[in-house]
Amino acid sequence: MPSLLPLLRRAYPELRLQLTESLTQSMLSKLRQNELDLVFAALPVTGESFETAPLFEEPFMAVFPRNHPLTQRKTLTMEDLASDHDENGLLLLEDGHCLRDQALSVCGMVPMRDQQRLATSLEMLWHMIGAGEGYSLIPQLALRNRAEWEELVVVRPMAPASRQIGLVWRSSDPRGSAFRDFAAFLASKLPESCLPVTVENT
After folding, report:
1. How confident is the model at residue 146, as a pLDDT?
2. By residue range, what is the domain housing residue 103?
3. Global pTM?
4. Does residue 38 form part of some domain?
């Protein structure tokens, strides 16, 4: 978002922004109740009351504590993670965080309830990894401004692993055409290290 704001100010100088952050389902509930105009979310988003426009593909990166054996590999696959039986394994966010469900979907794992170590926030997840408690899958854009962690963690690309980020609005909103144009503008300004959308959601 920080890199996007200057672009928006130049392209839409009269745009009034009021930003908020919350869990995806909470944001979608507010959108449905006309408390928000637009939501950035990982697609697909279910619900007949919404219209979506894909913006870009955001890669997932594997983030390990420095002493984890999988850091010896320069590039990892899902099979590498699935075959890893180290006691300091996959760390997840608590139920309700969409990133938790996305990480599980990407790696194809079914966590055992009595073996899960859960973080309450993305920031706590970084601390748990840095402390050597395990590893996790973190979206590319969440790696920005993390230089202070370089001595504690190792980041490795996954092949292939990504999520599609899109714009969501109410299908009944009369500004739908303007929102589609806005989404096209955003899609043309790819964040660094992200990829253009190849398959659109409907």
Report:
1. 84
2. 58-161
3. 0.84
4. yes
